[in-house]
Design a protein that fits this description.
5-stranded parallel sheet; two-stranded parallel sheet; 48% helix; flat
């Protein structure tokens, strides 16, 4: 059985790797480490299809080490022990480089076993993960390794790889294969920075296209769109990408950019993640618009209810309305900040007894020398307001809420200044 195209044309040298110039360009740290021949334990962190496996195999080749590859989803402790057994034999005279893909799936005990071997220098570990290593990898392994972050490959860097792929396919099939620049650029963009996905799409396009009467095979944009239409939706509800999209979604609404916010909304909904979209939208309405436009909360809640009622794909309609409304609304986080400040005081132990006049008591014990609750009912006074102490004594003059610089809150400020008959500039 023939291997996938991405494996058949895997680069053999550092200069052939697509992208990652911030790591492998001339004079960059990782390149210098590899070329030194003194190889530390490495952890490669980044999305799929960005060259992590390829680079590990090149490192083994350039440092003359026996290359072993395991996957964290299926490998066992016994597999590691079997690899270590090759040490000091003719099978691995210069040592072993163990490439452990998806190391985050190794449990704590497995990672501890691995640690014992790398600590004694019996193997050199190159591990890869698509998740944040500082959350998923044993701290002891992290402390003995150097982490390098791989980034999604830009479309302009993927185009040359696609040209090479079509050239190799043309040679293998002994026929002329053509794909114009528009098709190549579309495929490069549609793969969302994943070179392997782009190469696999190229092979699919060739396999699904019939040659013309002259034996020439032309890849059309329509064919490329048919086979790559879902590729750009790189999304994992359990991984970093999920939280990155949600973060970008809310920050775009907070930043009043409807175009970006709708883009991230589409990424969520096209991936079928309606619950995350509505939850973050509701949070943003309360947290970032807040008192600058209080009615936005029931409005967005109604849009969310409608979206959940009709489901996808129609849910996109009320949610798009709500997202644009949030983006175009004035912003205030005054109440949110006030709460956080009040909670911080509480966690610091600043609370104290509730003032007597606010307690839920209707009688006094014999030990109370000053009997009576002394609560003043605001509605019995002009303007439905009367000054009295509400905070505990330890926080008597504390100010948490400060009026935001928006029309709604400034109107409230002016109203209460009139009622209280004093200038409240807090």
């Amino acid at each position: 059985m023939r291997s996938p195209l991405a494996d058949r044309i895997r680069p053999k040298s550092l200069d052939d790797i697509v992208g990652q110039k911030h790591l492998l360009g001339e004079g960059k740290a990782l390149r210098n480490i590899i070329e030194s021949g003194e190889l530390p334990n490495l952890i490669f962190y980044g999305p799929s299809g960005t060259g992590k496996t390829t680079l590990a195999s090149i490192i083994a080749l350039q440092t003359n080490r026996k290359f072993h590859k395991l996957n964290g989803t299926s490998a066992s402790t016994a597999d590691i022990k079997a690899i270590v057994a090759e040490l000091d034999t003719l099978a691995a005279p210069n040592g072993i480089l163990l490439y452990l893909d998806e190391i985050q799936y190794f449990n704590k005990k497995q990672q501890q076993t691995l640690l014992d071997y790398i600590e004694r220098g019996e193997i050199t570990l190159v591990a890869s993960t698509t998740e944040n290593p500082y959350f998923y990898i044993h701290g002891a392994i992290l402390s003995r390794s150097t982490v390098f972050e791989f980034k999604s490959v830009a479309p302009e860097e993927i185009v040359p790889a696609l040209k090479r792929a079509f050239a190799i396919l043309s040679e293998e099939k002994q026929m002329q294969i053509e794909a114009n620049d528009e098709v190549l650029l579309y495929m490069a963009r549609a793969c969302a920075g994943d070179v392997r996905k782009a190469l696999n799409s190229a092979e699919l396009c060739v396999l699904s296209t019939l040659p013309d009467s002259e034996g020439k095979l032309s890849i059309t944009k329509e064919k490329a769109m048919e086979l790559t239409q879902k590729s750009a939706m790189k999304y994992d509800r359990e991984g970093d990408e999920h939280y990155d999209i949600l973060s970008a979604f809310q920050k775009s609404m907070r930043g009043s950019d409807p175009n970006a916010a709708l883009h991230y909304l589409a990424r969520l909904l096209e991936a079928g993640d309606l619950p995350s979209a509505v939850r973050r939208l509701m949070v943003c309405a309360c947290e970032d618009v807040g008192l600058a436009y209080p009615m936005i909360i029931p409005i967005v809640k109604s849009a969310v209810d409608a979206a959940l009622m009709v489901g996808l794909p129609e849910a996109r309609i009320p949610l798009a309305d709500a997202v644009v409304l949030v983006c175009n609304s004035p912003k205030s986080n005054s109440a949110y900040l006030a709460y956080d400040e009040a909670a911080a005081d509480l966690r610091a132990g600043k609370s104290g007894p509730i003032p007597r006049q606010l307690q839920n008591k209707h009688f006094d014990g014999e030990d109370n020398q000053n009997k009576g609750q002394f609560y003043r009912y605001p509605h019995d006074y002009p303007g439905h307001y009367v000054p009295q102490q509400y905070l505990p004594d330890v926080l008597k003059n504390k100010v948490y809420y400060r009026y935001g610089e928006n029309k709604t809150e400034q109107a409230a400020k002016e109203y209460w200044q009139r009622i209280k008959q004093k200038d409240d500039k807090k």
